[in-house]
Amino acid sequence: MISRAAAVLAALLVLTGCVSPALGNGSYRGKGQASVQAALSEVETAALVVEQLRRDRIPKAYADETVSASEQAIGSISESFGSVQPPPQSDQVHDEVTALLDDADSAISAARIAVRRVDRPRLGELLEQLHQLADRLRDAESRLS
Amino acid sequence: MKRVFALMLGVLTAIGGFVDIGDLVTNAVVGSRFGLGLAWVLPVGVLGICVFAEMSGRIAAVSGRATFDLVRERLGPRVGLVNLVASMAVTFLTFIAEIGGISLALELATSVNEFFWVPVVGATVWLVLWRASFSLIENTFGLLGLTLIVFAVAVWRLHPDWSALVHEASHPANTHGEGLPTYFYYAVALFGAAMTPYEVFFFSSGGVEERWTEKDIGTMRANVFVGFPLGGILSLAIAATAALVLKPLDISVETLGQVGLPVGVALGKIGLVVVLVGFFAATFGAACETGLSTGYSFAQYFGWQWGKYVRPRQAARFHLVVLLATIVAVATLLTTVDPIKVTEYSVVFSALALPLTYFPILVLANDPDYMGEHVNGRMANALGTVYLVVVVVAAAAALPLMFITKAGQ
Amino acid sequence: MNTNAHPPERVDARYHLLDRQILDRDGGMVAKVDDLELTEQDGSLTVSALLLGPGVLGPRLGGRLGAWMAAVWRRLHPAEDPRPGRIDISRVSCVDSAVHLLDSRAEIGIDGFEHWAHTKVVSRLPLVGPGEPPPQRPDSPGPPAGAVTHRASDLLGRRVSGPGGVPRGHVSDLRLRTHFVARGPNWHTAGMTVTDLILNQKATATLLGYERRNDQGPWVLRAALRTFRPTIAGTIPWRDADVDWPGQTIAHAGQGLDEFVL
């Protein structure tokens, strides 16, 4: 009885970890929205770190680790979205979201480089860039919902 | 005077020792995604842990026996074994999460990769459990954990709209954009983070380690009813800082670094340095507690000599279990599993294991054979029964919610 | 020489003895009572020893897990035909929330696994500190040759039938009477005799106490448990019970059940 319960538990665990591939247009749109939302969180995190570092309100190691974690996260968000086959009518969603995720990826990478060098002028430029990118992501998120 | 000092020390270590990696992560995640809309769960969870910690502490003080020791006697060897396996699995999962948490905190402080820290931390935790005295461990990490007050200071320095904050906390509501199942999933997670099963094992075993008697019941109650709620306020502060800083920016917490960011916004570099000390203290203290609890539950089921109050050579099997647990925990973390993910699962599984843990405590605290005249009064029984229902509901909801929400995504 | 007699005490095997922690003279932990050795002696059944270890716990757990546990123990035990850990009942001083022994841990000795854990692992770890653990427990001499022994777990759960096969219930517990004898300043347990069998309608796995007393709180829990779980049906004196040891049943010669007294 115990071993059977354990088997059921294990099966449930495996199922919760599985992500179902997007099939229909509705769920692909939803996947796009979720990816944009996740990207927004990473972009805003990077922006916050950049701003705090510019004002010397965050230790360098902390800033480095946090923005590097965001960089890794945006990489896997892009990969996860990109690996899903878009259904026929959803090419526009695919292109728009992919473009946004690519921009987020490069912006956060640039931020990581600038953070590691504590390149203050560059940090200022990137802050502006990240804020604009965040606005575009918010915009896209509301359109996709 | 000495008694006052001892009392204060007990309360302060209870406050500082309340928060662990589960509280740190879950409160920050909830604050960043739901604001204070789930704040109602905290007082519910804190009262619950107070009620059952008091019972298990009283059991230890009056009978001189730890709770898990007595569980086998009352539930019998077969049901007791199920209880052992389930409780130990959850506690061990939490142990892994805590060691991971320490490594993450050190990574944030030094930029040295987490995976380098994992074996170093594992060895250090084991060494502390091997040779440091019980009260040294409790007092050091309990007091150091008080640095987490920095979260409360940060809330104050962020100059929030207090009336809006109070209004949000007192009116439970879901956030736009999050589904209702996700709301309740995080309610269960927060509940599990506040009412961790290992806490009651550790508390009663600690009572035996420190040789409590009936005279210590008063002090024990002060520690529980003053220390734990104040510790709960620290948890609330963590959620509040995330709600005030991260939620407006649409940042949802997924890393330990994000948990501390609001303090940096409020208090600058000094704030973040203090936060890192707090992270380290909370996770290291909890790693010691969960590591010891793994050994306690195993030894107490089989009747082996256990505890730090005897020399290591007198409790060889107990220390063997702790050593093995540490090695397996380190090995698990070196498979590059994300400690934050492990933490998120550990709090939900804690909620799942709660009925198994709490039901025997309620029974034992009422048994005149062990408790004599110190059996539960009407208040303890009323609260205990109500909470038994609550934990059963939370446990029943945990797995379906996890399945529906895909673990909170 | 203590002239005051220690009155005999009533103790129930499963509720008070089984799965209880065994403590030595100084409060150190020895083991749990995993089973009880019962010896037939002049028509009466006495508890002759406490039995310890996975070799005894395994059969008591039953099922595949129990069999596995016992098999592992047999495989890892250094002796060819290992005998279970045994503490003679005469070494017990008293039973309260634990079973207290007259001897210290050094005199009792430690069991094989503890010894192995110390020798092979703990003593080789850094900073282990000085001192030596107690020596390994020697094999207990065992019951006197020719004595027929059984285990308490063998009796518990057995179905009891009255004359004509009318079902009386299942053995839920064994009621024992403990006799004491003074040796110097201490009271020894001189012996524990089975006086009655406590019967329950069904074979219950756990004894929470609610089936025995009517006043244990909280009342909600008590009411719920007494609704769903059977309470104690009554007791029968040991002399009226005829145990088919190799089989699974016990025949009761008397007419009805005696009332259960706490």
Detailed description of the structure:
The complex is a heterotrimer of chains A (145), B (409) and C (262). Chain A is an all-alpha fold. Helix content of chain A is 83%, strand content 0%. Chain A is built from 5 helices and no strands. Chain A has helices at 2-17, 25-54, 60-82, 91-117, 120-144. The longest helix of chain A is centred in the N-terminal third of the chain and has 30 residues, at 25-54. Chain A is flat, with a radius of gyration of 19 Å. Chain B is an all-alpha fold and 409 residues long. Chain B has a single domain, classed as Amino acid/polyamine transporter I. Chain B is built from 16 helices and no strands. In chain B, helix 2 runs parallel beside helix 11 (217-246) and helix 3 (41-63) crosses helix 16 (378-405). The longest helix of chain B is centred in the last third of the chain and has 47 residues, at 256-302. With 262 residues, chain C is α+β, with helices and mostly antiparallel strands. Chain C has helices at 13-17, 54-61, 63-76, 105-108, 112-121, 152-155, 219-228; strands at 9-12, 21-23, 29-32, 35-41, 44-52, 85-88, 92-95, 99-101, 148-151, 159-161, 167-183, 186-200, 232-237, 241-243, 249-252. In chain C, strands 1, 4, 5, 6, 9, 10, 11, 12, 13, 14 and 15 form an 11-stranded mixed sheet that branches. In chain C, strand 14 and strand 15 (249-252) form a beta hairpin. In chain C, helix 2 runs antiparallel to helix 3 (63-76). The mean pLDDT of chain C is 84. Chains in contact: A-B, B-C. The A-B interface holds A 2, 9, 12, 15-17, 19, 34, 37-38, 40-41, 44-45, 47-49, 52, 56-62, 64-66, 69, 73, 134, 138 and B 82, 107-111, 177, 249-252, 254-255, 257-258, 260-261, 264-265, 268-269, 272-273, 276, 399, 402-403, 406-407, 409.
